[in-house]
Amino acid sequence: MKPTVFDVAQYVLRKNGPMTTMKLQKLIYYAQAWALAWSEHPLFDNTMEAWDRGPVVREYGMPIVALARSMCSQFGDPTHLDADQRDTVDVVLSRYGNLSPEVLSELTHAESPWRNAHSQSNTTAISLGDLQSYYRQLGMALLEEMTSDSPTDLFSLKLLLMQITVQNCQEPIGWGVPMGHEVW
Predict the structure, then answer these.
(1) How does DSSP assign 135-171, residue by residue?
(2) CB 40 within 8 A of CB 21
């Protein structure tokens, strides 16, 4: 059984604790993106849209708000993620989990999957093909930069790729929105 976005959200919240809805949505996005790059399969089937503040799973917006604010357990079950899926989310959380919602939003805005969808409208679905292609190319380019001293186990390789990805982020785009006033 494939996890739902709620299952992934519950897993993220149990690992990292309460957070803003905006941050939860972005961490879910990065989990989906890297799952596609590494396993060629989506982590969940829900559609992500390119909203002004970054990627959002619209159809689950209000329950995600409830999850982020209260960690209520009526939505989602983190045990629906298999070991590889948990590993992917753990790597995403280790690299992106300490970033602010605004920085996560800025990162998504610097990447072509969100830009391509958002250029059409502010609610266009982000293509899974674009996500897979972009993150797979990014991962392959980063693998070429690795040395013979690089780790060989899958978790460490994923972690190294994420570290290089976050370090290579260009100058962020400023929003001028005070912390805590984000919309998603």
Answers:
(1) HHHHHHHHHHH--TTS--SHHHHHHHHHHHHHHT--S
(2) no
The tally of CA atoms less than 13 A away on the side-chain side of residue 140 is: 7
CA 60 to chain CA centroid, nearest Å: 16
Contact 68/18 with Cβ under 8 angstroms?
Answer: yes
For residues 155 and 152, what is the distance between their CA atoms, to the nearest angstrom?
9
Which residue spans within the chain are E strands per DSSP?
Answer: 49-51, 54-56
DSSP classification of residue 124: P
Length of the chain: 184
Write down the domain spans for the chain.
5-167
User: What pTM does this model have?
Assistant: 0.77
Could you give the CA distance from residue 159 to residue 156 in angstroms, rounded to a whole number?
5
Q: What is the pLDDT of residues 32-63, one digit of tens each?
A: 999 999 888 999 998 999 988 889 888 665 54
Q: C-alpha distances in angstroms, 165 versus 40, 51, 67, 91, 144? A: 19, 23, 28, 12, 13
